[in-house]
Specification:
Layout lengths: L1 H9 L5 H20 L12 H15 L11 H7 L7 H12 L2 H18 L13 E7 L7 H9 L5 E5 L6 H8 L5 E5 L2 E5 L3 E6 L9 E8 L2 E9 L4 E3 L3 E3 L1 H15 L6 E6 L10 H4 L3 E2 H5 L17 E6 L2 E7 L10 E6 L6
Length: 352
């Protein structure tokens, strides 16, 4: 009887003995299909439009920095969602196979190479071990229905230093109460705040040309020395039908933030916050040109943080200067429309 049951269980087609033949049959079909192209002279004439689209896609990714921002900030919009252009590559590949076009298939290789050159490194795991300081940042959303729970979730990350953005004045006491058991020191400046397990001094607003406070700076004294910690929430950007990608105020604030960091007297600097832009966005050059992204240097994958329901871009950033990133990751979803992010860094970096 036992043998009968084993035979029946294996007959559902899910066992290894069935998978092998199925895979071989699929490969045989593919070989026969490709073999039928040999005598077909049209394989080089068909799919010219697909080939042209593949070339255009490759050029857009390769020359994205040359796309002008003069019309609706089109360049920044393209750079914000640049990784997602890779989705078009398998689409073109399938269409090339359907059209039985050798020309299209060869052309698709070009955007594939460009995409891998731009983002292939992000597909590998660059995380390391060690480090002596853990930091986290979270845009908590002014309309967060559970600020207390959000604060506890972020504290549970084990971060030594936590930055929060989009703090609603009426919710600040709730965040302070929830974080007090873990973080002895804190400062709130306008709509941003910083909480630390280590002594904190010199907390003050940073002028990013908005007319109200959405950025701050403080010195955190860790066991491995003083660190200048900046918290920033740059203005939001909008995609409008008539105006395009409107980001003029965000761009001005990014320049002002970059100037403040450039004149920082301490050599070890951490920037935490919602920059409303990705590392590819040229509008953030004033900041990105002088700092390293922990996700880019020591993360795994793209680390998308927004929107929390289906993350499509990493607009929340942890960046460092004079500090070595060790690992970087995205935290579980809270009551916000952003995901919190965290990083572990080594303060004893080269040249620090």
């Amino acid at each position: 009887m036992a043998q009968a049951y084993v035979t029946e269980t294996g007959s559902d087609g899910s066992g290894p003995e069935r998978r092998g033949p199925r895979l071989r049959r699929l490969l045989d079909r593919l070989r026969r299909s490709l073999g039928s192209w040999r005598g077909d002279r049209g394989v080089w004439r068909r799919g010219l439009i697909l080939a042209a689209l593949a070339l255009i896609l490759a050029l857009v990714m390769l020359l994205h920095a040359q796309i002008p921002n003069t019309i609706g900030n089109l360049g920044s919009l393209t750079e914000t969602f640049l990784p997602w252009l890779g989705i078009l590559i398998p689409v073109l590949l399938v269409l090339g196979l359907v059209r039985k076009s050798a020309t299209a298939l060869i052309a698709v290789v070009l955007p594939a190479i460009v995409w891998l050159n731009l983002f292939g490194g992000l597909l590998t795991d660059r995380t390391g071990a060690g480090g002596d300081l853990t930091v986290a940042t979270h845009n908590v959303n002014a309309e967060n229905p559970d600020p207390s729970g959000t604060a506890r979730d972020v504290a549970a990350s084990g971060a030594d230093v936590v930055a929060l953005e989009e703090l609603k004045a009426t919710a600040v006491p709730t965040y302070e109460k929830a974080l007090a058991p873990t973080y002895r020191y804190h400062s709130v400046q306008g709509t941003v705040g910083l909480w630390s397990k280590y002594p904190m001094s010199g907390a003050k607003p940073v002028d990013i040309k908005l007319g109200w406070t959405r950025a701050m700076r403080a010195t955190v004294t860790t066991p491995n020395g003083e660190v200048a910690v900046y918290v920033a929430h740059l203005p939001s950007v909008r995609v409008k039908l008539q105006a395009g990608f409107t980001a003029r105020q965000r761009d001005r604030s990014a320049d002002a933030l970059g100037e403040a960091i450039a004149t920082e007297s301490l050599r070890k600097v951490v920037l935490l916050g919602d920059l409303n832009g990705t590392m590819n966005d040229r509008a953030l050059n004033a900041v990105t040109s002088q700092m390293r992204s922990t996700q880019g240097a020591a993360g795994s994958g793209f680390g998308f943080s927004w929107p929390a329901s289906f993350p499509m871009a990493r607009i929340d950033q942890i960046m460092v200067k004079g500090i070595e990133p060790v690992t970087s990751w995205t935290l579980p979803r809270t009551g916000s429309d952003h995901l919190p992010i965290a990083a572990r860094v080594k303060l004893a970096a080269t040249g620090s």
